[in-house]
Design brief:
Largest sheet: none
Structural class: mainly alpha
Oligomer: single chain
Order of helices and strands: HHH
Distance between the termini: 109 Å
Strand content: under 5%
Helix content: over 70%
């Protein structure tokens, strides 16, 4: 809405008053001319026109007195409405700018979150690989230790079994009456056989 300048309103009011007074004077002049013609037939017509002129002047004065204040109040109300509309527009623009800034910040935050997630996933994968390799190495070492321990137990049991077998064999030989040379040969053969088995294991 365009603001009505106060000067234009004053000029329009002055023009209205001028036209009112001009029309009043023209009517008064016509009335005077007609009054001269009709003075003989109708007395007091001049007074009627004089009353009309006074009434028109009074109306013009009242209009001139009240119209500027009316126009000023209307202009003030229009200017106030315009100022409020501009304030609402600025507020809406600032809110729209804030929303745009938030949307852009949210996009940047999402990109940063994606990049951070990729880095964390890569680091977690590397940590899991290292942990798995460590567990495998630990299990390999434990398995090797268990195999070695089982081998030691098996060798000990084999020696015990061989010793028992040698004792049983010696006991049988003694019972059958073997001589000392035979027993010595058997023991030597058994010890040689035992050494051969240990070298295989």
């Amino acid at each position: 809405m365009k603001r009505l300048p106060l000067k234009n309103a004053g000029r329009r009011l002055a023009l209205l008053l001028l036209l009112t007074f001009g029309a009043s004077f023209v009517l008064l002049a016509q009335a005077g001319a007609e009054a001269k013609k009709e003075e003989k037939s109708e007395p007091g017509i001049g007074w009627k026109w004089a009353n009309f002129a006074i009434l028109a002047a009074g109306l013009g004065y009242l209009i001139a007195k009240t119209a500027p204040a009316l126009f000023r109040a209307r202009t003030t109300a229009i200017q106030k409405d315009i100022a409020e509309a501009q304030a609402v527009k600025k507020d809406a623009e600032s809110r729209a700018a804030a929303v745009d800034a938030r949307v852009q910040a949210l996009g940047a935050e999402m990109d940063r979150f994606r990049a951070q997630s990729k880095i964390e996933m890569r680091e977690e994968g590397e940590r899991i690989r290292q942990e798995t390799a460590h567990q495998i190495a630990r299990l390999d070492a434990q398995f090797a230790q268990e195999v070695e321990s089982a081998g030691k137990v098996a060798r000990r049991e084999l020696k015990e079994y061989a010793a028992k077998l040698a004792l049983d064999l010696a006991e049988q030989r003694i019972r059958v009456g073997a001589n000392a040379a035979t027993e010595s040969g058997l023991v030597d053969a058994f010890v040689a056989d035992l050494g051969h088995r240990e070298s295989k294991n």
